[in-house]
Amino acid sequence: MALPVIYSNTDVLEFEKNKEASMEFTISSASILEMKHNLPLCFTIDPIYSTIQPPSNVIKVTYYPNSPFHFMMTNRTMKIDFSAKPAGSDNVVMLSVVVLVADKIMQEQEEMEEEKQKVNLYEQLECKICARKYSEDIEDLTPIVLNCGHTICWSCVKSLQVDINLPVQCPFDRTYTYDSARNLPKNRVIIDMICDLKRMVLSQTHGTCDDPLLPCYENDQHEATIHCTTCKEDFCNKCFASTHSSRILSAHQAVPVFEKPLVPPNCTIHPDHEVRYVCTDIKCQIMSKLFCEECKIGEHVSHTFEGVEQLIENNAKDVEDAVKKLKEEEAKMLNLKMEKVKKVLKSFDKYGNEYVLYVNSITQYFEQKKASALKKFEAFVDSESAKTEQGMLNIQTHGDSIAALRKELEKMLCRRQGLFDVKDEIDLAAKMSNLENEVNDDFNSLSHFCILYEMVTKPTLHPMFAKRERAPKQDDGVVEGKTSRKRTRVADDHEIEEITLE
């Protein structure tokens, strides 16, 4: 059995002693790697998890020279170790990246290499067929792995599989994938890289936020990233380092915010005791179903119950699922539906080809009556445009409502508050996650109407599109062709011409 190979684009990270900085490097392997390090708390490493998935990952190390834990670097060889152990083998393959701190380190070569890493990272995050960026929220842009190992987006996978019974042929190496497209796995490495990139961008915005999910205790416009287990408060990295710079506070321990302990509320009957249980007895008449140890042998004696921790975990999972569904619906609402309505709205552009076609036709055949006809025509265009704009506003409003609810649920998860009774929020999230068919996006372009030259009657939908409204919804199309004329007799015995597009 061949031993796995581990590659790194650098073996040393060098930081300036008094300068806050971040450095990145890429680690690659065909096997799952275990990452360990002995960096003191004046460093942070992203991603923080210890298991590195193949084929490659970008590791980011940030150095905070003002941290109270700076003294821990003394007499220590700092390094990050990556190891892989094949199944059934006692041999361990290991690679180490050493971290150094010096007084002055400014090398142009390292800066150029860092730029190359960023370029390579962005290239890995887009589909090589349609050149669109992968997404963790939009299904059509989800990265999918073919059997040959190449990754393309889900939209391109569907276009390559003409029939469900036919295989998918990779456009890069012509290898066939005989599995059903629906059974192909997502590329979790790329999805994790997308999440890492989002965190990287967030960290470069100076940490300020008008409405953070979890506010920093020192500055409520900072997003908290760590929880002090001694102070029992949440801090961003910078504020934690500055507030704990004294010797007496430097011994405080910090953990990532998602690892901080859940603190149950106090019992309503015995305010000095924390809630420990949830009453599940259907015959219980006590208003509060949350109770403490004292209630267990008093008001809720002999009642059936379950631990409050289990309730919180179940509610947290429900909230996480609701957030995921809301993210998907938010992306669908603001991207897919909005794009479709924008295309319809564009057809009413007074500088567009469709509009100019009608204006020129009316001007050519009805010069004497063009002022009246054009006035009615422009009023109609403005009216339909206003309807379409109102449709866009409705979609935006629904999207904003979804985003607001998602934000509130995310706050619940991050702050570990309000998770004891979330049924109304979950029900509302479920209802809002199924708004797709309730929000109208079926608007008609200008070419879908029959326009009479003299504008003696209000434009009506062409029969083809009038039937379309009664039939099952189909993809929008653009009808192109030559302009034809048709004689029509109206109530006042005037013959006028009707414009249609063949």
TrEMBL record:
InterPro entries: E3_ubiquitin-ligase_RING (IPR052667), Znf_B-box (IPR000315), Znf_RING (IPR001841), Znf_RING/FYVE/PHD (IPR013083), Znf_RING_CS (IPR017907). Keywords: Coiled coil, Metal-binding, Zinc, Zinc-finger. CDD domains: Bbox2_TRIM23_C-IX_rpt1, Bbox2_TRIM23_C-IX_rpt2. GO terms for molecular function: zinc ion binding. Residues 468-502 are annotated as: Disordered. Residues 127-174 form the RING-type domain. Pfam families: zf-RING_5. The keyword Coiled coil applies. Residues 211-257 form the B box-type domain. PANTHER family: C2H2-TYPE DOMAIN-CONTAINING PROTEIN-RELATED, PROTEIN CBG20824. This is RING-type domain-containing protein. It comes from Caenorhabditis remanei (Caenorhabditis vulgaris).
